[in-house]
Amino acid sequence: MPHEPQPQPADELDAEAVRTWSSLALAALGRAREDIDAINVYPVADADTGTNLYLTAESADRALADTFGDAAGRTVAPTTLSEAVRAWAHGALVGARGNSGTILAQLLRGVADVLGAEPEAEPEAEPEAESGGGRTGPGGLLARALSRAAEEAYAAVAHPVEGTMLTVAGAAARAGEAASEAAGTAADVARAAYDGARAALAETPGQLAALGRAGVVDAGGCGLVAVLGALWQALSGQEPAAEPAAGRPAVSGPRPTDPCEQHEDGPAYEVIYLLEASDAAVAELRAQLDGLGDSLVVVGGDGLWNVHVHVDDPGAAVEAGVVAGRPYRIRITHFGDERRRGRGERAQRAVVALVPGEGLVDLCAGAGATTVLVRPGEVPAAAELLDAVRRAHAREVVLLPGRAELRAAAATAAEQARAEGVRVAVIPTRSAVQGLAALAVHDPQGSFDEDVVAMTAAAGATRYGELAVAERQSFTSAGICQAGDVLGLIDGDVAVIGAGLAETAVAVLDRMLGSGGELVTLVLGPEVPDAVAEHLQAHVQSGHLAVDTVTYRGGRYSAPLLIGVE
After folding, report:
1. How far apart are CA 537 and CA 115, in angstroms?
2. Minimal CB count within 10 Å: which of 163, 397, 474, 555?
3. Which residues are CB-neighbours of 151 under 8 A, at least 6 positions away?
4. How many whole angstroms separate alpha carbon 548 and alpha carbon 326?
5. 9 Cβ neighbours under 8 A, 6+ residues apart
6. What per-residue confidence (pLDDT) applies to 272?
């Protein structure tokens, strides 16, 4: 059941207060989501800031609910303040979306670093600090948490810009500190931070030219005001006044009729991934990514990071993560395609990919492809593929069928699309990993013929493997298998029969790498634990030092494991 927010005493900071704050913040961002999306013009006018903030807050709230037992309907031991804030921050980190969501995750981490710290023995309080307020009471603790949050958010952004969410966070922290110095309660500090954030938000159009031209306040800052309003409501029980149109002030100047008109000269892709890496490796990664693009934000710590950057070469950004550690949950968004679709223009070229898993749908869509989800045993009709070609809204289309049995439907759809004036090429990919290899070299700026040749060559140079579970006894090219055996297929033929997933995957990998390779791609099914990928990655590194490994989640409907060797 959804958590019913309970107003807190004005000077009590505990796990229940954090729980209420989270619930109220999520609700506030849900109400303001569309309005915040509408004023999103910086750093990229892709109308998703409100959505990204909401999804980040939703991930954080879900992780927090788990500590209370809400998610599974079970009862657990009482949650401490430290457990609550750390779970909340971790949930935001792993679920952060976009530039604004990544910064929000780091703000919550800063709060958790203070509120979640283990209590230490302190000197005897001064008489004037014995009340709930002051630097040593809950008010002082909250003020320090907000200050730490702003400091860590600024530090996470490679090149901080004023007039943004960072400016609003800094103003809120300063206002909270002032209230604390005046011996304010936690509720007083929260109210001061909220008021300070609102005032700073109203000034953002004068600090950032893009906002001033559009006549709007900063979208990320607007979302942060909603989060701080929820904090004050959680501690005081008073509901913040409704912000007009998501906090948009009456700024002089015309509002943009099309937000896509803003910031089209920046990098074409947004790349986000979680990364397991050491502090030293992340420091080197920051420097490398800073040279590849802009809007670089790296948040997290203690071995787990969330990396966000805008680049023209998403492959290089992902490869940098591979060098630094283990990237996963990789999301790539193509801004250019979104802008063209928003204006109703036909793109010059697009890719349509048939993919066997929801996670692969997200991955390929993030790389700019129009996708068709293919469930096990299904063969989409040619009409469905033709509809995907039409949705791509391009003059030229490269079609990736992904499996041999889908080529006939793809060829039929291509012929029908050609009759409508669309130039279509079908690349005979036989596995999703071959499609990923083709997408990695796709060059929409080059000539159509050269692009098709390069993509075909990349797919053809990728050996593909797959692990499946035998449903019944059967004769295979590797011998007789029994129901429940793990089958290791290489290039479509059964090459290994094993008892377990990990050992069968190792045997398949060894055979595939026997003829050489530079990059191993692993696509894990929904039920396969991360430990299997870690085991396979370690095995590759131990026997093939020059071979890199990247791992993706195939999501629902995907095979237990897909392997690609390039």
Report:
1. 37
2. 474
3. 110, 173
4. 11
5. none
6. 86
Angle 109-115-116 (CA atoms, 0-180°, nearest 5)? Answer: 75
For β-strands 304-311 and 293-301, DSSP reports them as: antiparallel
d(CA 408, CA 426): 10
Q: Please, which residues bridge with residue 157 across strands?
A: 297
Q: Where do the DSSP E strands lie in 57-205?
A: none
**DSSP letter string, 345-402:** PPEEEEEEEEESSHHHHHHHHHTT-EEEE--TT----HHHHHHHHHHH-EEEEEEE--
C-alpha dist (Å) from residue 424 to 278, 374, 417, 448, 456: 46, 20, 7, 10, 14
| CA pair distance 83, 67, nearest whole angstrom | 8
SS (H, E, C) 412-431: HHHHHHHHCCCEEEECCCCC
- Give residue 1's Cα distance to chain centre: 26
Q: Which residue has the tokens 């860590």?
A: 152
Pairing of strands 370-373, 548-553: unpaired
Q: Which residue stretches of the chain have pLDDT < 50?
A: 1-2, 70-75, 120-134, 244-263, 341-344
Q: Residue for token digits 């909603």?
A: 226
Say how many Å lie between the first and final Cα of the chain, rounded: 48
Is 444 in a helix, a strand, or coil?
coil
CA–CA separation, 536 and 549 (whole Å): 9
Could you tell me the two tokens for 435?
A: 């499609």
Note the pLDDT of residue 223: 95
pLDDT value of position 225: 96
Q: Which tokens in the block code for residue 184?
A: 């304010």
Mean pLDDT of the chain: 85
8, 235 contact by CB (below 8 A):
yes
Q: Distance of alpha carbon 382 from its chain centroid, rounded?
A: 33
Beta carbons within 8 Å of 513's beta carbon, 6+ residues apart: 520, 540, 543, 544, 547, 565
Summary count for the chain: helices (H), strands (E)? 19, 16
- Cα(110)–Cα(156) distance, integer angstroms: 11
Instruction: Look at residues 392, 395, 397 and name the one whose alpha carbon lies nearest to residue 348.
Output: 395
Residue 493's Cβ-side half-sphere holds a number of Cα atoms within 13 Å equal to 6
